Amino acid sequence: MTDTVTDPPGITVPGVNPTGIVLRRAGMASFIGTFVEWFDYASYGFLATVIAVVFFPGTDARTALLATYAVFALSFIVRPIGGIIWGHFGDRIGRQKTLSLSIFIMSAATFVIAFLPTYESVGLWAAGLLLVARLVQGFAASGEYAGAASFLAEYAPDNKRGMMTCLVPAGEAAGLLAASLFVAILHGLLTTEQLHSWGWRLPFLMALPLGYVGVYIRRRLDETPHFKALEEAQHVPQTPVIELLTSHCREVLIAFGGTLLNAVGFYLVLSYMPIYLSTELGISETAAFIGSTASLAVYLGSIFLMGALSDHIGRKKVLMACSVLFAILTVPMFVLLSGAVFTGVPSTGFFIILGVWALFGALLSMNGGTLPTFLCELFPTRVRFSGFALSFNSANALFGGTAPLIATWLIGVTGSKLAPAWYLVGAAVVTFAAIAISTAGRAGSRLKDE
Questions:
Q1: pLDDT tens-digit profile of 261-295?
Q2: Of the ranges 68-82, 162-176, 420-434, which one carries the lowest mean pLDDT score?
């Protein structure tokens, strides 16, 4: 059963009943597709200490880890470029075709990593090949998050858009959780020699079958009602990125600043933290990944609550409250983490770490469960994919992908294990300012169709 909504410019957008099969398929495709891409992408981050040994031997542990994170960060260089390219095609030919191609490229690039030679076999060529594969991964990922969020937001009804669009960050978190669990199992079952020899390749081998499932589901979906309405009205832009930068610069800057906390927080809390706890605070890698799994589980379980809350009080209030809480609580929570290691009672210290990490996951879900909908409502349909992709990927390229590298470098330069906490506080302050000046994200907001 459908209804129609006529917007002021005269574009008629067919709405989809939230209980309809089309909306359910759209939700499933968005969740599974994002899950596949982020399982592939996260496996590298969780295996950073192993990859450091395999691809950068002969150096001290910190230098090897820095080199590994440099490759991680360099893969984000292509994200803004990818955002422009994917955004162009997403706004020109549609969300569905663009998303099907992005997941295919991601899966292929990840699968190739499983067969890369090591430093022991080919020397520095190994690191070069790893970088190429990571660059392709970064290019593919730049189209995934923005496209999946735009796709689902354009299917969801106005009063449930926050809840429905949460399937995208939920798929992302589930992919991270699955990767964390998989790597934790590898660390628990394999010896160090086995992990360094062949165990690290296993998560990357899974990319091909998972990618096939994602492509299959996405190819069976129709285009979104909002994009179809633009096509029928012949309002599809010829050069969406140029239109974006000439007519929506303010929105791009707000989106960039609004994404900063998400970019830094996501990669520090959900990707870098296991490495921080094991390399900087000295707890076992298995314990660190158990803690990571707990944090991800809380994050995943809280996302839908935050999305539903944003449907009632608006995205803006939730995002601003999240920024304030991060600014106030981050440093004290890092102090608790450091103190927990030296309690003298291992079990007590571990439970403190779990509690702090779970709280980080809950706080991050306030942002992660709300930001995609906010960014979708910030831009009109004509340039939604481009605006979301360019701002989101630029923030992640400059501050997200570099977060583990900067955190590791800051600790080395300052000698303070609290340095990453202050970096996260700075990101929270910038995001608060950006969201505060925005007029989007209020309760009852509708998608703009012009």
A1: 999 998 888 777 777 777 777 777 777 767 777 88
A2: 68-82
CA torsion through residues 314, 380, 81, 32, sign: positive
Can you give the pTM of this predicted structure? 0.82
Where along the chain do its domains lie?
Answer: 14-436
Q: Read off the tokens for 263.
A: 């970019």
Residue pointed to by tokens 């923030």: 395
Looking up tokens 């994050």 gives 299
Q: What does the pLDDT look like over 326-367, one tens digit per residue?
A: 999 999 988 887 765 544 444 566 778 788 888 988 999 999
Q: What average pLDDT does the structure give for the chain?
A: 83
Cβ partners under 8 Å of residue 416, min gap 6: 410
| Phi, psi of 345, rounded to the nearest 5 degrees | -120, 100
Which CATH architecture does the domain made up of 14-436 adopt?
Up-down Bundle (1.20)
- Quick one: pLDDT at residue 58? 66
